[in-house]
Amino acid sequence: MDFVKRRSLLSLAVLGPLLSGCSGADVQPLTFANRLHIPPLAPSEIDPDGFRSFALNLQPGKNGTWGINGDHLGPTVRVKRGERVRMAVTNRLPEATTLHWHGMRLPARMDGGPHQSIESGATWTPQWTVDQPAATTWFHPHPHGKTATHVYRGLAGLFLVDEPGGPALPSDYGVDDIPLIVQDKILDNGRLVTGPVDNGTFGLLGDTIMINGTIDPYVEVTTTQVRFRLLNASNTRVYRIGFADNRTFHVVGGDAGLLREPAPADRVKISPGERIEIVAAFSPGETVVLNSIGENRRDANDPEEDDFELLKVVAAASLKPSKPLPRALGGPAPVIPPPGARVRRFALSGSEINGRDMDMNRIDEVVPAGAVEIWEIDNTTYAHNFHIHEVAFTILDINGEPPPAYLAGPKDTVFLKKHADVRLAVRFGRHTDPVTPYMYHCHLLRHEDKGMMGQFVIVDPGTEHLIPRTIPTGHHHHG
Ligand code: C2O
Ligand code: CU
C-alpha cells in the first residue's frame, strides 16, 4: 500500500472539509464528497536494546484542532504480541497533558493516566512488553479534568496489536482492514468549536460527524469482504451502527480482543471508548451507506437520539475474492469467576461513583494481582458507561440477561442505559505497584472530567491490608 501517494490526496480530504464545514443545527444528508482518510502507520525504529520505539508529538494543528505527528488525530501504531515497545511522547502543546494507552495491559506507571502528566515542552518515555491477545486498542490524553477538551481537539489514535498465527481475517491495513474512528464535532466556518464540551447533562453533542477526521466520507473497497475496526472516539455520543439496507455482517472482535466465533448482527451499539471489529461482504459495483440509527430518539436520558449517515462504501467493479470467514476466531476464553469470587459494587449517579468524586490522592480499591472478581455496576440515573484500565472483562449480564453475542467477547468498556445494571467478570493483571493507581470511570468525557472516576492499585496478594489509602499530593511519575 502506497501511503505517500494516498496521504497527499488525503490531506485535502481532511482539511478541505474543515475549511468549508457547515455549522447548521440540523443533521444534513451527506453527499460523500471526500475520500476517507486512512491514518498512516506510525514509523518505528529498533533501539540498540531491542525495544521498538515510536515518536509521538502532540502538537497544535490548524482551525483549532490538535494532532499527534500532524494537524488532527494521530498515526496508527501497530505492534506484535511479545514485542517490547518504547514511546517518546513529546508535548508541544501550550499546556500539560498525558497520553493514555486505552486497552493496554501494562504497569500503572506506564499507563498515561492523570498521574503521568507531561508538562508543555517535556517528553515522556514509557516502555513495556506487549503481552496481550490481538486487539484494537487506542490512545488519548487523560489529564485530570481536561480530557474532554483534549480528545475533542483531536488527540487520539489507534494502537493495533497483532498476534502471530491468528485467524485468517482481512488484515491488509487501509485496503481490506479499515479503521473507522467515529467522532462528532461542531464547526463554525471551518473552525472547530470547543466551547460546549461541558454543556448540559452529557457534554458536547456535535452535528457533524468525522470518520478518521474526514467529513462527508466515502471509501472504495476492492475485496469481497472488508474488516472495519470501529472506534467510538466521540466525547459522549453513542452510535447504533449498521448499513442502510440492514444487511447482516459479522462482528469478529470487541474492545480487548477477538470473539470466539463470528457473531452475525445488523446493528451494533458503540459508546465512547468502545471498539467493535466487523467483517462485511460486498458485491462488485455496489454502493451502500454505513449509518447510525438511534434507538431512543425521544428519550433525553440517552445521548444517542440522532440519526447520522456515516460513510458511503463504494465497491469496485471487480472485487478480489477474500478468504472465507473462519468459523473459529480463537479469541480469549470468557472470564469465569471462581466460586466465592470477590464482588465489588459501584453505584453510578449524576457525576459520582459510590457517592464520591474523583480524588487523585485517594485509593478507592486495592486489588490482588491476577485476581478474577465480579464488578457490579448499578446505574441509578441517565446513561453512562464504565471503563476499567488495564483489565479485560466478560459481561456476565445486563439487567439480568446475557449480553448480545457481539458483546460476549473480551471488553474493557461497557455501556449502561438509564437505570441499567451490569455484572462484569474482571481479570486483573500482574503488574503490582502500591502507590500508582489505575483508573475506572465513565467514558462520557464530561462525566469523567466532572469526577466520575475512581482509582485502584494492584498489589501482591496478601498485602492488601497494608496498602495506604492515600497517596501524596503531586505524586507524579515522569517515566
Ligand atoms: Cu479511554 Cu481512562 O480512558
Ligand atoms: Cu457518565
TrEMBL record:
The record's InterPro entries line, in alphabetical order, gives: Cu-oxidase-like_N, Cu-oxidase_C, Cu-oxidase_fam, Cu_oxidase_Cu_BS, Cupredoxin
Q: Which residues form the Plastocyanin-like domain?
A: 62-164, 350-459
The record's section on SUPFAM superfamilies has: Cupredoxins
Q: Which domain of life is it from?
A: Bacteria
> What Pfam family is a match for this entry?
Cu-oxidase_2
Signal peptide limits: 1-25
Q: Does the keyword RNA-binding apply?
A: no
List the keywords (alphabetical): Metal-binding, Oxidoreductase, Signal
| Family classification | Belongs to the multicopper oxidase family.
What name does the UniProt record give this protein? Answer: Multicopper oxidase domain-containing protein
Q: What is the lineage of its organism?
A: Bacteria, Bacillati, Actinomycetota, Actinomycetes, Micromonosporales
